[in-house]
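ok so for the tutorial part 2 we go from a plain amino acid sequence to predicted C-alpha coordinates. step 1 is just haveing the sequence, like this:
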Amino acid sequence: MTQPRRSTARTAPRPAPPPPDSLAYALCHCARLIAAVRSGHTLTQGFANLAALADPSFDRQRPAIQDITYGTLRDHALGAALLAPLLRSEPPEPVYSLLLAARHRLDARPQQAHTLVDQAVAAAGTMHHGRLTGLVNGVLRSYLRRREELAGLAARTDEASHRHPAWWIDRLRHEQPAHWREILEAGNDRPPMALRINRRRSDVPSMLSALAEAGIEATPLGRESLWLPAPRPVDQIPGFTAGLCSIQDPGAQQAAYLMDLAPGQRVLDACAAPGGKTAHILELADVSLTALDSSPERMPRIAQNLQRLGLEAELRVADCRELDAWWDGRPYQRILADVPCSASGVVRRHPDIKWLRRPQDIAGFAGQQAAILDRLWQTLAPGGKMLYVTCSIFAAENILQVEDFRQRHADAEALPIEGRPHRQLLPCAHHDGFFLALFTKNA
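step 2 — the prediction. this is what the C-alpha coordinates look like for a chain of 443 residues:
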Protein backbone atom coordinates (compact mmCIF):
# COMPACT_ATOMS: atom_id res chain seq x y z
CA MET A 1 0.00 0.00 0.00
CA THR A 2 1.29 3.39 -0.91
CA GLN A 3 1.89 5.49 2.17
CA PRO A 4 0.47 9.03 2.05
CA ARG A 5 3.15 11.66 1.86
CA ARG A 6 3.49 13.96 4.82
CA SER A 7 3.10 17.61 4.08
CA THR A 8 6.32 19.58 4.35
CA ALA A 9 4.45 22.88 4.88
CA ARG A 10 4.95 24.39 8.29
CA THR A 11 2.21 26.07 10.24
CA ALA A 12 3.05 29.70 10.80
CA PRO A 13 3.90 30.30 14.45
CA ARG A 14 1.34 32.22 16.44
CA PRO A 15 2.58 35.78 17.01
CA ALA A 16 3.72 36.51 20.54
CA PRO A 17 1.36 38.68 22.58
CA PRO A 18 2.45 42.27 23.17
CA PRO A 19 4.19 43.16 26.45
CA PRO A 20 1.59 43.32 29.24
CA ASP A 21 2.50 46.89 30.19
CA SER A 22 2.27 48.22 26.63
CA LEU A 23 -0.38 50.25 24.87
CA ALA A 24 -0.51 47.46 22.28
CA TYR A 25 -1.70 45.09 25.01
CA ALA A 26 -4.48 47.51 25.97
CA LEU A 27 -5.47 48.03 22.32
CA CYS A 28 -5.75 44.27 21.77
CA HIS A 29 -8.27 44.00 24.59
CA CYS A 30 -10.11 47.12 23.44
CA ALA A 31 -10.43 45.72 19.93
CA ARG A 32 -11.86 42.44 21.15
CA LEU A 33 -14.34 44.17 23.47
CA ILE A 34 -15.53 46.49 20.71
CA ALA A 35 -15.80 43.61 18.25
CA ALA A 36 -17.92 41.72 20.78
CA VAL A 37 -20.31 44.67 21.06
CA ARG A 38 -20.51 44.93 17.28
CA SER A 39 -21.55 41.28 17.22
CA GLY A 40 -24.33 41.84 19.77
CA HIS A 41 -22.74 41.33 23.20
CA THR A 42 -22.74 43.78 26.10
CA LEU A 43 -19.70 45.53 27.50
CA THR A 44 -20.69 44.41 30.97
CA GLN A 45 -20.38 40.77 29.95
CA GLY A 46 -17.21 41.44 28.01
CA PHE A 47 -15.43 42.99 30.98
CA ALA A 48 -16.75 40.26 33.27
CA ASN A 49 -15.28 37.61 30.96
CA LEU A 50 -11.90 39.32 30.97
CA ALA A 51 -11.93 39.81 34.74
CA ALA A 52 -12.68 36.09 35.16
CA LEU A 53 -9.35 35.27 33.53
CA ALA A 54 -7.63 36.72 36.63
CA ASP A 55 -4.90 38.28 34.48
CA PRO A 56 -2.88 40.70 36.67
CA SER A 57 -1.87 42.64 33.55
CA PHE A 58 -5.51 43.21 32.65
CA ASP A 59 -6.25 44.44 36.17
CA ARG A 60 -3.40 46.96 35.93
CA GLN A 61 -4.41 48.10 32.44
CA ARG A 62 -8.16 48.10 33.05
CA PRO A 63 -8.50 51.90 33.46
CA ALA A 64 -6.81 52.51 30.10
CA ILE A 65 -8.74 49.69 28.40
CA GLN A 66 -12.03 50.99 29.75
CA ASP A 67 -11.26 54.59 28.78
CA ILE A 68 -10.39 53.71 25.17
CA THR A 69 -13.21 51.19 24.75
CA TYR A 70 -15.93 53.43 26.15
CA GLY A 71 -14.68 56.43 24.21
CA THR A 72 -14.55 54.46 20.97
CA LEU A 73 -18.12 53.23 21.39
CA ARG A 74 -19.40 56.71 22.22
CA ASP A 75 -17.79 57.77 18.93
CA HIS A 76 -18.68 54.64 17.00
CA ALA A 77 -20.72 56.24 14.21
CA LEU A 78 -18.20 59.05 13.81
CA GLY A 79 -15.28 56.62 13.76
CA ALA A 80 -16.93 54.43 11.15
CA ALA A 81 -17.64 57.46 8.94
CA LEU A 82 -14.05 58.72 9.24
CA LEU A 83 -12.53 55.36 8.35
CA ALA A 84 -14.89 54.47 5.49
CA PRO A 85 -13.11 56.53 2.76
CA LEU A 86 -9.81 54.88 3.75
CA LEU A 87 -11.02 51.30 3.31
CA ARG A 88 -12.18 49.38 0.26
CA SER A 89 -14.08 47.11 2.64
CA GLU A 90 -14.12 46.50 6.36
CA PRO A 91 -11.24 44.24 7.41
CA PRO A 92 -12.06 41.21 9.53
CA GLU A 93 -12.54 41.53 13.26
CA PRO A 94 -10.93 42.33 15.57
CA VAL A 95 -8.74 44.37 13.18
CA TYR A 96 -11.58 46.70 12.20
CA SER A 97 -12.38 47.38 15.85
CA LEU A 98 -8.66 47.96 16.45
CA LEU A 99 -8.78 50.67 13.78
CA LEU A 100 -11.80 52.24 15.46
CA ALA A 101 -10.04 52.27 18.83
CA ALA A 102 -6.78 53.61 17.41
CA ARG A 103 -8.59 56.35 15.49
CA HIS A 104 -10.36 57.44 18.69
CA ARG A 105 -7.07 57.48 20.59
CA LEU A 106 -5.38 59.52 17.87
CA ASP A 107 -7.96 62.27 18.30
CA ALA A 108 -7.93 62.03 22.11
CA ARG A 109 -4.11 62.08 22.37
CA PRO A 110 -2.81 63.75 19.18
CA GLN A 111 0.56 64.43 20.81
CA GLN A 112 1.12 60.67 20.98
CA ALA A 113 0.32 59.97 17.33
CA HIS A 114 3.66 58.35 16.43
CA THR A 115 3.63 56.03 19.44
CA LEU A 116 -0.05 55.20 18.95
CA VAL A 117 0.40 54.12 15.32
CA ASP A 118 3.38 51.94 16.22
CA GLN A 119 1.48 50.31 19.09
CA ALA A 120 -1.61 49.74 16.94
CA VAL A 121 0.56 48.02 14.35
CA ALA A 122 2.09 45.89 17.12
CA ALA A 123 -1.40 44.95 18.29
CA ALA A 124 -2.40 44.04 14.71
CA GLY A 125 0.63 41.77 14.61
CA THR A 126 -1.10 39.47 17.11
CA MET A 127 -4.23 39.18 14.93
CA HIS A 128 -4.70 37.01 11.84
CA HIS A 129 -1.06 35.89 12.07
CA GLY A 130 0.10 39.47 11.53
CA ARG A 131 -1.09 39.61 7.93
CA LEU A 132 -2.86 42.96 8.33
CA THR A 133 -0.17 45.06 9.98
CA GLY A 134 0.47 46.91 6.72
CA LEU A 135 -3.20 47.75 6.37
CA VAL A 136 -3.39 49.13 9.91
CA ASN A 137 -0.23 51.18 9.43
CA GLY A 138 -1.40 52.59 6.10
CA VAL A 139 -4.95 53.44 7.23
CA LEU A 140 -3.84 55.23 10.39
CA ARG A 141 -1.13 57.23 8.65
CA SER A 142 -3.59 58.20 5.90
CA TYR A 143 -6.03 59.27 8.56
CA LEU A 144 -3.45 61.56 10.14
CA ARG A 145 -2.72 63.18 6.76
CA ARG A 146 -6.39 63.60 5.79
CA ARG A 147 -8.01 64.20 9.17
CA GLU A 148 -9.56 67.61 8.38
CA GLU A 149 -10.88 66.48 5.00
CA LEU A 150 -12.40 63.33 6.50
CA ALA A 151 -14.01 65.28 9.34
CA GLY A 152 -15.71 67.53 6.82
CA LEU A 153 -17.12 64.53 4.95
CA ALA A 154 -18.33 62.85 8.15
CA ALA A 155 -20.09 66.02 9.32
CA ARG A 156 -22.56 65.67 6.44
CA THR A 157 -24.32 62.70 8.07
CA ASP A 158 -26.56 62.85 11.15
CA GLU A 159 -25.20 59.60 12.61
CA ALA A 160 -21.60 60.80 12.50
CA SER A 161 -22.41 64.36 13.61
CA HIS A 162 -24.50 63.31 16.60
CA ARG A 163 -22.78 59.93 17.21
CA HIS A 164 -26.08 58.07 17.63
CA PRO A 165 -28.05 55.70 15.37
CA ALA A 166 -30.29 57.45 12.84
CA TRP A 167 -33.51 55.96 14.28
CA TRP A 168 -32.55 57.22 17.75
CA ILE A 169 -31.93 60.75 16.43
CA ASP A 170 -35.23 60.78 14.52
CA ARG A 171 -37.16 59.58 17.56
CA LEU A 172 -35.75 62.30 19.78
CA ARG A 173 -36.34 64.98 17.15
CA HIS A 174 -40.02 64.01 17.20
CA GLU A 175 -40.46 63.50 20.96
CA GLN A 176 -38.14 66.22 22.29
CA PRO A 177 -38.13 68.95 19.61
CA ALA A 178 -36.80 71.60 22.00
CA HIS A 179 -34.08 69.47 23.62
CA TRP A 180 -33.00 66.70 21.24
CA ARG A 181 -29.60 68.22 20.46
CA GLU A 182 -28.71 68.68 24.14
CA ILE A 183 -29.83 65.12 24.91
CA LEU A 184 -27.61 63.69 22.18
CA GLU A 185 -24.66 65.82 23.26
CA ALA A 186 -25.07 64.65 26.85
CA GLY A 187 -25.17 61.05 25.66
CA ASN A 188 -21.72 61.50 24.11
CA ASP A 189 -20.10 63.02 27.22
CA ARG A 190 -18.23 61.28 29.98
CA PRO A 191 -20.68 60.59 32.82
CA PRO A 192 -20.63 62.60 36.04
CA MET A 193 -19.74 60.93 39.34
CA ALA A 194 -21.79 61.48 42.48
CA LEU A 195 -21.81 60.08 45.99
CA ARG A 196 -24.81 59.29 48.15
CA ILE A 197 -23.91 59.66 51.81
CA ASN A 198 -25.15 56.88 54.08
CA ARG A 199 -26.94 59.01 56.67
CA ARG A 200 -26.82 56.13 59.16
CA ARG A 201 -23.02 56.32 59.25
CA SER A 202 -21.98 59.81 58.12
CA ASP A 203 -23.19 63.19 56.89
CA VAL A 204 -22.36 65.71 54.17
CA PRO A 205 -20.00 67.94 56.24
CA SER A 206 -18.02 64.93 57.47
CA MET A 207 -17.67 63.49 53.98
CA LEU A 208 -16.69 66.86 52.52
CA SER A 209 -13.96 67.14 55.14
CA ALA A 210 -12.69 63.60 54.47
CA LEU A 211 -12.66 64.18 50.73
CA ALA A 212 -10.82 67.48 51.12
CA GLU A 213 -8.16 65.78 53.25
CA ALA A 214 -7.74 63.22 50.46
CA GLY A 215 -7.36 66.01 47.91
CA ILE A 216 -10.69 65.24 46.22
CA GLU A 217 -12.88 68.14 45.14
CA ALA A 218 -16.62 67.72 45.80
CA THR A 219 -19.72 69.91 45.64
CA PRO A 220 -22.97 69.36 47.59
CA LEU A 221 -26.01 68.80 45.38
CA GLY A 222 -28.61 68.75 48.16
CA ARG A 223 -29.64 66.29 50.86
CA GLU A 224 -27.06 63.46 50.96
CA SER A 225 -25.59 63.96 47.48
CA LEU A 226 -22.09 65.12 46.52
CA TRP A 227 -20.86 65.74 42.98
CA LEU A 228 -17.24 64.95 42.03
CA PRO A 229 -16.05 66.91 38.97
CA ALA A 230 -13.21 64.40 38.48
CA PRO A 231 -14.28 60.73 38.77
CA ARG A 232 -12.18 58.51 41.03
CA PRO A 233 -11.90 54.75 41.57
CA VAL A 234 -13.95 53.73 44.59
CA ASP A 235 -10.86 52.57 46.47
CA GLN A 236 -9.73 56.19 46.50
CA ILE A 237 -12.99 57.46 48.05
CA PRO A 238 -12.50 57.80 51.83
CA GLY A 239 -15.03 55.72 53.76
CA PHE A 240 -16.41 53.86 50.76
CA THR A 241 -15.25 50.43 51.92
CA ALA A 242 -16.55 51.20 55.43
CA GLY A 243 -20.02 51.93 54.04
CA LEU A 244 -20.04 55.69 54.59
CA CYS A 245 -21.17 56.36 51.02
CA SER A 246 -22.19 54.82 47.70
CA ILE A 247 -21.80 55.77 44.06
CA GLN A 248 -25.21 56.77 42.72
CA ASP A 249 -26.37 59.26 40.12
CA PRO A 250 -28.28 62.23 41.64
CA GLY A 251 -31.22 61.49 39.36
CA ALA A 252 -31.44 57.94 40.69
CA GLN A 253 -31.26 59.28 44.24
CA GLN A 254 -34.58 61.06 43.81
CA ALA A 255 -36.54 57.80 43.77
CA ALA A 256 -36.28 56.90 47.47
CA TYR A 257 -37.12 60.45 48.57
CA LEU A 258 -40.35 60.41 46.55
CA MET A 259 -41.66 57.23 48.20
CA ASP A 260 -42.78 58.99 51.41
CA LEU A 261 -41.19 56.35 53.61
CA ALA A 262 -42.01 55.83 57.30
CA PRO A 263 -40.82 53.34 59.95
CA GLY A 264 -42.58 49.99 59.95
CA GLN A 265 -43.85 50.14 56.37
CA ARG A 266 -43.84 46.99 54.29
CA VAL A 267 -41.87 47.92 51.14
CA LEU A 268 -41.16 46.11 47.88
CA ASP A 269 -38.30 46.87 45.50
CA ALA A 270 -39.50 44.81 42.56
CA CYS A 271 -36.53 44.98 40.16
CA ALA A 272 -33.78 45.63 42.66
CA ALA A 273 -30.35 44.81 41.18
CA PRO A 274 -27.74 46.16 41.62
CA GLY A 275 -29.28 47.48 44.83
CA GLY A 276 -28.55 51.20 44.88
CA LYS A 277 -32.16 52.26 45.41
CA THR A 278 -32.74 49.31 47.77
CA ALA A 279 -29.97 50.57 50.01
CA HIS A 280 -31.13 54.17 49.82
CA ILE A 281 -34.63 53.19 50.99
CA LEU A 282 -33.14 51.39 53.99
CA GLU A 283 -30.87 54.33 54.78
CA LEU A 284 -33.88 56.66 54.92
CA ALA A 285 -36.28 54.63 57.08
CA ASP A 286 -36.59 51.50 59.24
CA VAL A 287 -38.86 49.60 56.89
CA SER A 288 -39.43 45.92 56.22
CA LEU A 289 -38.10 45.62 52.69
CA THR A 290 -38.25 42.79 50.17
CA ALA A 291 -35.83 43.10 47.24
CA LEU A 292 -36.71 41.04 44.18
CA ASP A 293 -34.70 40.45 41.05
CA SER A 294 -35.15 37.88 38.33
CA SER A 295 -31.40 37.37 37.83
CA PRO A 296 -29.62 34.98 40.21
CA GLU A 297 -26.31 36.32 38.85
CA ARG A 298 -27.14 39.88 39.94
CA MET A 299 -28.57 39.11 43.38
CA PRO A 300 -25.14 38.73 45.09
CA ARG A 301 -24.39 42.34 44.11
CA ILE A 302 -27.38 43.51 46.19
CA ALA A 303 -26.23 41.43 49.16
CA GLN A 304 -22.70 42.83 48.91
CA ASN A 305 -23.96 46.43 48.79
CA LEU A 306 -26.21 45.95 51.80
CA GLN A 307 -23.48 44.24 53.81
CA ARG A 308 -21.01 47.04 53.10
CA LEU A 309 -23.56 49.65 54.20
CA GLY A 310 -24.72 47.75 57.29
CA LEU A 311 -28.28 47.22 56.03
CA GLU A 312 -30.67 44.26 55.90
CA ALA A 313 -33.48 43.19 53.58
CA GLU A 314 -35.22 40.04 52.44
CA LEU A 315 -33.65 39.08 49.11
CA ARG A 316 -35.63 36.93 46.68
CA VAL A 317 -34.76 35.72 43.18
CA ALA A 318 -38.02 35.83 41.25
CA ASP A 319 -39.76 37.42 38.30
CA CYS A 320 -41.99 40.04 39.90
CA ARG A 321 -44.74 39.23 37.37
CA GLU A 322 -45.03 35.67 38.71
CA LEU A 323 -46.89 36.47 41.94
CA ASP A 324 -47.42 32.83 42.91
CA ALA A 325 -43.68 32.31 43.02
CA TRP A 326 -42.88 34.95 45.63
CA TRP A 327 -45.85 36.90 47.06
CA ASP A 328 -47.33 35.76 50.38
CA GLY A 329 -50.58 37.68 49.83
CA ARG A 330 -49.83 40.45 52.33
CA PRO A 331 -50.04 43.88 50.66
CA TYR A 332 -47.24 46.43 50.57
CA GLN A 333 -47.57 50.04 51.66
CA ARG A 334 -44.85 51.16 49.24
CA ILE A 335 -43.63 49.67 45.95
CA LEU A 336 -40.68 50.74 43.84
CA ALA A 337 -41.14 49.64 40.23
CA ASP A 338 -37.74 50.49 38.76
CA VAL A 339 -38.52 48.55 35.60
CA PRO A 340 -36.33 47.16 32.81
CA CYS A 341 -36.10 49.71 30.00
CA SER A 342 -34.08 50.82 26.99
CA ALA A 343 -31.61 52.63 29.31
CA SER A 344 -31.59 55.44 26.76
CA GLY A 345 -31.02 57.98 29.54
CA VAL A 346 -27.73 56.43 30.68
CA VAL A 347 -25.94 55.75 27.39
CA ARG A 348 -22.89 57.79 28.38
CA ARG A 349 -22.33 55.22 31.16
CA HIS A 350 -23.16 52.30 28.85
CA PRO A 351 -22.22 53.39 25.31
CA ASP A 352 -22.77 49.91 23.93
CA ILE A 353 -26.52 50.49 24.40
CA LYS A 354 -26.64 52.91 21.47
CA TRP A 355 -25.41 50.21 19.11
CA LEU A 356 -27.16 47.19 20.65
CA ARG A 357 -30.68 48.64 20.78
CA ARG A 358 -33.04 48.39 17.81
CA PRO A 359 -36.21 50.45 17.16
CA GLN A 360 -38.45 47.47 17.83
CA ASP A 361 -36.88 46.98 21.26
CA ILE A 362 -38.75 49.99 22.64
CA ALA A 363 -42.14 48.39 22.07
CA GLY A 364 -40.84 45.20 23.66
CA PHE A 365 -39.74 47.03 26.78
CA ALA A 366 -43.05 48.90 26.93
CA GLY A 367 -44.99 45.63 26.89
CA GLN A 368 -42.83 44.20 29.65
CA GLN A 369 -43.26 47.35 31.74
CA ALA A 370 -47.05 47.29 31.38
CA ALA A 371 -47.17 43.67 32.55
CA ILE A 372 -45.01 44.48 35.58
CA LEU A 373 -47.15 47.47 36.56
CA ASP A 374 -50.39 45.49 36.30
CA ARG A 375 -49.09 42.64 38.43
CA LEU A 376 -47.46 44.80 41.09
CA TRP A 377 -50.62 46.89 41.42
CA GLN A 378 -52.34 43.79 42.77
CA THR A 379 -49.87 43.68 45.67
CA LEU A 380 -50.28 47.33 46.74
CA ALA A 381 -52.42 48.10 49.79
CA PRO A 382 -55.29 50.62 49.48
CA GLY A 383 -53.83 54.01 50.29
CA GLY A 384 -50.36 52.74 49.42
CA LYS A 385 -48.01 54.31 46.90
CA MET A 386 -46.17 52.90 43.91
CA LEU A 387 -43.31 54.75 42.25
CA TYR A 388 -42.66 53.97 38.59
CA VAL A 389 -39.08 54.64 37.45
CA THR A 390 -37.16 54.22 34.21
CA CYS A 391 -33.76 55.42 33.05
CA SER A 392 -35.28 56.08 29.63
CA ILE A 393 -35.95 59.24 27.67
CA PHE A 394 -38.43 57.67 25.21
CA ALA A 395 -42.12 58.50 25.55
CA ALA A 396 -43.36 54.93 24.97
CA GLU A 397 -41.64 53.85 28.18
CA ASN A 398 -42.53 56.95 30.16
CA ILE A 399 -45.47 59.32 29.73
CA LEU A 400 -47.37 57.07 27.32
CA GLN A 401 -46.81 54.09 29.63
CA VAL A 402 -48.24 55.77 32.72
CA GLU A 403 -51.16 57.24 30.80
CA ASP A 404 -52.09 53.76 29.58
CA PHE A 405 -51.70 52.40 33.11
CA ARG A 406 -54.19 54.93 34.48
CA GLN A 407 -56.65 54.01 31.75
CA ARG A 408 -56.45 50.36 32.78
CA HIS A 409 -56.80 51.00 36.53
CA ALA A 410 -59.63 53.22 37.70
CA ASP A 411 -58.37 53.04 41.30
CA ALA A 412 -54.97 54.50 40.36
CA GLU A 413 -54.53 58.17 41.18
CA ALA A 414 -51.46 60.02 39.95
CA LEU A 415 -49.76 62.05 42.66
CA PRO A 416 -48.01 65.26 41.62
CA ILE A 417 -44.25 65.58 41.90
CA GLU A 418 -43.42 69.19 42.74
CA GLY A 419 -46.63 70.36 41.10
CA ARG A 420 -46.23 68.27 37.95
CA PRO A 421 -47.95 64.98 37.06
CA HIS A 422 -44.58 63.25 36.66
CA ARG A 423 -40.88 64.06 36.45
CA GLN A 424 -38.77 63.66 33.33
CA LEU A 425 -35.09 64.28 33.98
CA LEU A 426 -33.12 64.82 30.81
CA PRO A 427 -29.40 63.97 30.94
CA CYS A 428 -27.20 66.94 31.77
CA ALA A 429 -23.88 67.78 33.42
CA HIS A 430 -25.04 66.72 36.91
CA HIS A 431 -27.34 63.74 36.34
CA ASP A 432 -28.47 61.09 33.88
CA GLY A 433 -31.88 60.76 32.24
CA PHE A 434 -34.73 59.36 34.37
CA PHE A 435 -38.51 59.28 34.44
CA LEU A 436 -40.52 59.08 37.68
CA ALA A 437 -44.28 58.84 38.24
CA LEU A 438 -46.03 58.27 41.57
CA PHE A 439 -49.42 56.61 42.10
CA THR A 440 -51.65 55.88 45.05
CA LYS A 441 -54.35 53.22 45.18
CA ASN A 442 -57.79 54.56 46.08
CA ALA A 443 -59.87 52.40 48.40
